[in-house]
Write a structure and sequence with these properties.
The protein is about 75% helix and about 0% strand. The protein is globular. It comes from Luteimonas lutimaris. It is a multi-pass membrane protein. Belongs to the 4-toluene sulfonate uptake permease (TSUP) (TC 2.A.102) family.
C-alpha cells in the first residue's frame, strides 16, 4: 500500500509543468490522481472525491500564481481581462464549492469525466478567430462568463483553464496569451473555491491534518514543487504556441477522463 507522502510533491511537479504549459493549474490531473491516492492515506472513499477537489483547488492558488508570474514576465497575461473577470470568478468559485459539498462523490466524478470530454472536443474541433495577438477582451460579458467559469471550476476541481483558454481563443486572443491569462484567473478561482470547501464542509469530514475538505499534506506537498515546475511549463508553452498547443490540451483532457473511468 502506498502510505508515504513523497508522492504529493512528485505529483506537484507534474501539475506545475502542466499549469505553465496549458494554463490549467494542473487541476484536472490532480483531481484524477488524488481520487486514486487519498483513500490510501486514510480518507474514506465516500469523501475522497470531495477531498481531491478541495485539495486541488488549494494547491492551484500557488501553482497558478507561479505560472501567471512566469507568463507575465513574457508579456503573456492580459491583466485588463483578468480584472473584468475576477469578481465573477470569486462569486462563481464560492457558489460552485457550495454545490459540490452538497453533491455525492460519484456524481462529482462523472461530472469531471463529462467535462473533460466536452472540453477536449471543443479544443480539438471548435472554431476560433485565429491567433490574434493584440485583442484584449473586456466588458460586462467577461464578468458574466467569470461566474460560470468559477462555478464549474469549483465543481470539477480546476483552475478554469479548459474554459478560459477556449473562450479567449474564440475572442481572438493568441493561444499562448490565453494560457497566461487563464493562469492568473486560476489564482482567483482557487482562493474562492478552496475557502468554500474549507468553510462549508461538514464537521469531521476528513481525519487529522485537514481543514474542511482540504487535506493539507496533499495541498502543501503539491504546491511546493508545482510552484517550482510551473515556469518550465511556461517556457514550453511559448516555444510550442498556436494550434499545436490546443491539440496537446485536447489529448490531455481525454487521458484524464480515461483515468477516472478506470477508477
Amino acid at each position: 500500500m502506498l502510505d508515504q507522502f513523497w508522492i504529493f510533491p512528485l505529483l506537484g511537479a507534474v501539475a506545475g509543468v502542466l499549469a505553465g504549459l496549458l494554463g490549467i493549474g494542473g487541476g484536472l490531473i490532480l483531481v484524477a490522481a488524488l481520487a486514486w491516492l487519498l483513500p490510501l492515506h486514510g480518507i474514506d472513499r465516500d469523501a475522497a472525491m470531495h477531498a481531491a477537489l478541495a485539495s486541488s483547488m488549494a494547491s492551484i492558488v500557488f501553482t497558478a500564481a507561479s505560472s501567471a508570474y512566469a507568463h507575465h514576465r513574457r508579456g503573456g497575461v492580459l491583466w485588463p481581462t483578468v480584472a473584468w473577470m475576477a469578481p465573477g470568478l470569486v462569486l462563481g468559485g464560492w457558489l460552485g464549492s457550495l454545490l459540490a459539498v452538497a453533491l455525492d462523490g460519484d456524481v462529482l466524478k462523472w461530472g469531471v469525466i463529462g467535462y473533460c470530454l466536452l472540453a477536449a472536443a471543443r479544443m480539438a474541433f471548435g472554431g476560433a478567430r485565429g491567433d490574434g495577438g493584440d485583442v484584449v477582451p473586456t466588458g460586462p460579458g467577461m464578468g458574466a462568463a467569470g461566474v460560470g467559469i468559477g462555478a464549474l471550476s469549483a465543481v470539477v476541481g480546476i483552475g478554469g483553464g479548459s474554459m478560459t483558454v477556449p473562450l479567449l481563443v474564440w475572442r481572438g486572443v493568441a493561444a499562448v496569451r490565453a494560457v497566461g491569462t487563464s493562469s492568473a484567473c486560476g489564482v482567483v478561482i482557487g482562493v474562492a473555491s478552496a475557502a468554500g470547501y474549507a468553510i462549508n464542509a461538514p464537521a469531521g469530514a476528513l481525519p487529522a491534518h485537514a481543514v474542511g475538505y482540504v487535506y493539507l499534506p496533499a495541498a502543501i506537498g503539491v504546491a511546493v514543487t508545482s510552484v517550482l515546475a510551473a515556469p518550465l511549463g511556461s517556457r514550453l508553452a511559448h516555444a510550442i504556441g498556436g494550434p499545436a498547443l490546443k491539440r496537446v490540451f485536447a489529448v490531455f483532457l481525454v487521458v484524464v477522463a480515461g483515468s477516472l473511468l478506470l477508477q
